[in-house]
Amino acid sequence: MDRRGYCILLLVMLIHHLVSAQSFSTTGNWVVSVPASTITEAGNNYTQGITSATDQTLMSLLPGTNNGQNRNGIWEVYISKEDSDWDSRLIISARRTGTGTPLANNNTITGGTAYTTTSATPSAFFSGRGGYSNIPIQYQVSGLSVVIPVKAYTTNITYTFLN
User: Which of 23, 52, 88, 157 would bridge 62 by S-S if both were Cys, CB 3.0 to 4.6 A apart?
Assistant: First the structure.
């Protein structure tokens, strides 16, 4: 059977978040179809990745208190994934493509501008101080190959906000 006529549905991403005594939200998901005809290299050497829009997810956060202790608005965001139906040869990464809108003049945000590969273990993504709205997040899927079966793949990205 000729694979070139098929489309590969690579990713349905759901964005989740965990919070404790602060305001934190994410909006966005990503569904991408890749025509099989775009994957022309044999084996595991297809190096081109598929990327989402630069603002595929928008994150807003306002630090509060954690266990009754105020940490002066200092916070960290961690990223992880939980596979629903995912081929381990596919690699999903995320990066922060901007700062969003700071909610005060002395706020800071650092890290997360290079792609961070997701795994089941939470990894530090970026950190900062003070509140922000509409921090843009972009995703990339790499590891595409003709040896990966044609089907729909699903994973969930989880952001954990600690302050």
Answer: 23
Coil vs helix vs strand at 133? strand
pTM of the model: 0.81
CA distances from 128 to 72, 87, 102, 124, 131 (A): 11, 33, 11, 12, 9
- Look up tokens 């629903």; give the residue: 84
Tell me the domain boundaries of the chain. 3-162
Is the distance from CB of 142 to CB of 68 less than 8 angstroms? no
What CA–CA distance (Å, rounded) separates 53 from 156? 18
Tell me the mean pLDDT per 10 residues along the chain, length 163: 40 45 75 72 63 93 60 84 90 96 91 97 94 94 81 88 82
pLDDT at 69: 47
Please, what sign has the CA dihedral across residues 121, 140, 11, 136?
positive
**pLDDT of 46:** 57
Q: Which residues of 119-150 are buried (b: 16+ CB within 10 A; e: fewer)?
A: eeebeebbbbbbbbeebbbbbebbebeeebee
Phi/psi of residue 4, nearest 5 degrees: -65, -25
